[in-house]
């Protein structure tokens, strides 16, 4: 389906289609990491302002997701995984998605600025712009390294949550930013391995498409090693304590074992790529475990 076709059909969009534009499953992880950044920051926000800050992070992420789907409607139509989204499925016109994404972007940034501080609002704005212009429009259709550089877009929430409380950034949220940044390639490439044909059909130069599965598996292991160093950095730099250190060591060890299994796999049939699917699923749980440990570690130190 082309952009022109999608925009010419009467669209019976309802509220569920607008929710789908925000990529709610992706938003869950974004909100959680942002909440953790807020909870471990020194200082205090009232419950109402804290809720508002997290709401703004969610709305900003949703706005970026909506603008991503607006721009990629024609590509999404050529991928089985995304063909059911509101735009390629013909349930919504592109102009509505654009207006929704832009409006949500401005609302989330302005609300963050007025409710907390304008530095947090600035980082939120940068994260939205980075995801839309740097990742979606510039990197994704042009380079196999799209997810390496573009992964920064999903790493901003801990910085935003911290800044909402303090009005600045410090070593710990930067370390958490780097952890998500280096976590993104093995997480996303594990998925890309078993949906490679989708990306090929859409003309998106993901690493498995342009460099092959063997190279992708090696890169997953390479970035897992870097991610492991980033995961242990907070405790080595004495930014966190024993609770985080033990959790990071065990959880990252499991991640590394799964990454090694992927690197040793020779499976070419996506339906049989069990090691890749295990790594992808665990990588999501991994980030929840790591960031939850940061919060628990912080509470233990305060007790």
TrEMBL record:
Primary subcellular site in the record, as a coarse category: membrane
Topology relative to the membrane: Multi-pass membrane protein
EC annotation from Swiss-Prot or TrEMBL: 2.5.1.141
Keywords: Cell membrane, Heme biosynthesis, Membrane, Transferase, Transmembrane, Transmembrane helix
One GO biological process term: heme O biosynthetic process
Signal peptide feature range: none
Catalyzed reactions: heme b + (2E,6E)-farnesyl diphosphate + H2O = Fe(II)-heme o + diphosphate
Gene Ontology CC, one term: plasma membrane
TM ranges: 26-42, 48-71, 97-115, 121-138, 159-182, 220-237, 243-264, 284-300
Intracellular or extracellular location(s): Cell membrane
Pathway: Porphyrin-containing compound metabolism; heme O biosynthesis; heme O from protoheme: step 1/1
Extra information: Carbon 2 of the heme B porphyrin ring is defined according to the Fischer nomenclature.
Family statement drawn from the similarity comment of this UniProt entry: Belongs to the UbiA prenyltransferase family. Protoheme IX farnesyltransferase subfamily.
Classification via NCBIfam families: cyoE_ctaB (TIGR01473), PRK04375.1-2 (NF003349)
Cited function: Converts heme B (protoheme IX) to heme O by substitution of the vinyl group on carbon 2 of heme B porphyrin ring with a hydroxyethyl farnesyl side group.
Name of the molecule in the record: Protoheme IX farnesyltransferase
Organism per entry: Sphingobium nicotianae
Encoding gene per record: ctaB
């Amino acid at each position: 389906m082309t952009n022109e076709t999608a925009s010419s059909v009467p669209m019976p969009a309802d509220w569920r289609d607008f929710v789908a534009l925000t990529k709610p499953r992706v938003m869950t992880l974004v909100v959680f990491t942002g909440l953790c950044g807020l909870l471990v920051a020194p200082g205090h926000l009232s419950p109402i302002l804290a809720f508002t800050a997290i709401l703004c992070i969610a709305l900003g992420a949703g706005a970026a997701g909506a603008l991503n789907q607006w721009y990629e409607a024609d590509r999404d139509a050529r991928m089985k995984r995304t063909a059911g989204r509101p735009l390629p499925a013909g349930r919504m016109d592109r102009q509505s998605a654009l207006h929704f994404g832009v409006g949500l972007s401005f609302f989330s940034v302005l609300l963050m600025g007025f409710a907390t501080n304008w530095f947090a609002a600035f980082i939120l704005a940068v994260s939205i712009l980075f995801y839309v212009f740097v990742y979606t429009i510039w990197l994704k259709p042009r380079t196999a390294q799209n997810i390496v550089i573009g992964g920064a877009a999903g790493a901003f929430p801990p910085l935003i949550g911290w800044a909402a409380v303090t009005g600045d950034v410090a070593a710990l949220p930067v370390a958490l930013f780097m952890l998500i940044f280096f976590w993104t390639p093995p997480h996303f490439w594990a998925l890309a391995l078993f949906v490679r044909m989708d990306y090929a059909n859409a003309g998106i130069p993901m690493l498995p498409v342009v460099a092959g599965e063997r190279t992708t598996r090696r890169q997953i292991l390479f970035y897992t090693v870097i991610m492991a160093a980033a995961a242990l950095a907070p405790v080595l730099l004495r930014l966190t304590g024993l609770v985080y250190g033990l959790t990071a060591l065990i959880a990252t060890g499991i991640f590394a074992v799964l990454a090694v299994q992927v690197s040793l796999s020779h499976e070419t049939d996506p339906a049989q790529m069990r090691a890749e699917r295990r790594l992808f699923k665990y990588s999501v749980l991994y980030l929840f475990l790591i960031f939850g440990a940061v919060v628990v570690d912080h509470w233990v130190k305060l007790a």
